[in-house]
Amino acid sequence: MDDFDQKVFLMEIEAQCTYALHAIQNLNMAIGGIHANGVDQQRMRYLLRETFRSLHSFLSHTSNISKMIWPIDSKKHREIRNARAAHLKTLLEIDDENPIRSRELRDHLEHYDERLDHWAQTSTHKNIVADNIGDWGAIQGLDSGDFMRWYDPADKSFRFRGVRYDINELFLAVQALHQKIPADLKH
Predict the structure, then answer these.
(1) Which superkingdom (predicted)?
(2) Which domain does 109 fall in, by range?
């Protein structure tokens, strides 16, 4: 990778980090609004949607970073992508244990239709809870696989079909990566 190519990739990683961090700011504002006194039902619906839109946005931008550093394995341009990935990992001092690498939760949201198909085929009682905000476990008596999207602002976790994903850990990893980008490449 020559210097110009390196600069282009670093600028794109920086942009995606910035977008991801802004999505978390929007998430925090939405959560703050939900907890405000006197919020009417229409505003509450908007804030609920804004919470999950912001989470999805954060995960999409984080996934874009992931694909640059850990490209999808395909035969097309494999050598070039693997060389780029190795160079960026070394340059940014990032290893394969970094939480940014996982695109699992983003994939659940991007392929939600497929997850609903699986739920429809496997749910015993056909209960479904989606887009809920609050303490995990506040709703009792349902199978964990019936909870499609749940955000717990207390511990900053997202649960999809009962599987817990640590949003704060991912946020801290994006923040740390953003700080590694040289200042002259930041927008």
Answers:
(1) Bacteria
(2) 3-185
Confidence label for 36 from pLDDT (cuts 50, 70 and 90): confident
This prediction's pTM: 0.93
DSSP string of the chain, one letter each residue: --HHHHHHHHHHHHHHHHHHHHHHHHHHHHHHHHTSTT--HHHHHHHHHHHHHHHHHHHHHHHHHHHHHS----STTHHHHHHHHHHHHHHTT--TT-GGG--HHHHHHHTHHHHHHHHHHH-SS---B-SEES-TTSS-SS-GGGB--EEETTTTEEEETTEEEEHHHHHHHHHHHHHHS-GGG--
pLDDT at 147 over 80: yes
Backbone angles phi, psi at 157, to 5 degrees: -115, 150
How many Å apart are CA 138 and CA 41, to the nearest integer? 21
Work out the pLDDT band at 76, boundaries 50, 70, 90. confident
- Give Dmax over CA atoms of the chain in angstroms: 58
Bridge-partner residues for 151, per DSSP?
133, 158
Specify the number of domains making up the chain: 1
Structure tokens at 18: 């910035």
Evaluated on CA atoms 76, 66, 62, 14, the torsion sign reads: negative
Tokens standing for residue 161: 């079909």
